[in-house]
Amino acid sequence: MPADIVFPNLHIQIQNLSRAAFSVFGIEVYWYAICVMSGYLAALATLRVIAKKTDQDPDMYTDYIMYCLIFGLIGARAYYVLFSFDSYKDDLLKIFAFREGGLAIYGGLILTGLYTIRFVKKRGVTYRALVDTAGPAIAIGQCVGRIGNLFNREAFGGYTDSLLAVRFKVDQVAYVPAELYGTIFESDGALYLQVHPVFLYEMLWNFAIFLFLIFFRKHKKFEGQLFLIYTLGYGVGRFWMEGLRTDQLKLFGTGIAVSQLVSALIALISAIIMIYNLRRQNYGKSL
Fold it and tell me: In the predicted model, is pLDDT for residue 39 greater than 80?
């Protein structure tokens, strides 16, 4: 039987990889949802460990991430719907069909960031201290969550024969971009796409950011620097990876990938703030 997913240059084959993990009262629970929730749990564990090591209240971060889960999902869905509204304008109830997919991480990060402003005012902690604690947690959470894209056969790029190239069965992919029609081929009696596993690139990139932040934590020069390193690193990496993807959300009426634009702006702003704060260290001030 032909494998569902193949990494040909790594000689890895995955058989019978279902989108659904199990069902409860006839309702299927998808692996994607399990991966996203596992990402939140990984982030929570990271938050609590860092909080203990920095003499903060771990329970405060448990409360914080519970709200982040809610606002993150709402923001991620709103961002996706906003930039793909043509798919929903004729049936607005589909906006609430979360089980059909359609989440964009930048929307979740933006809305969660806005909520954080209110949270710190209520809890008496500084914004910079909280986001510094959150930086490594966000990175590891994203890393774990991206595994869900493998089960969904999504977040991929164009054809490649690179070391990490992945093959998906055509009949298991939600859609086949027109530019990939000419690359479909048969192997072991099944039709496959061979593409850039952008989800895997991002997973590895986020894990690298996480490790760097954990190492660099004791060497930071000012409050908020860890979070700026995260936003700068993620912005640069996502800008490149978004350029590879075949499922880009486009800015209204243009051919511009909106997440690529957002990535560039985040990276640029983070770099400016970082440079400013480092230069102001001699004066004991920070932005």
Answer: yes
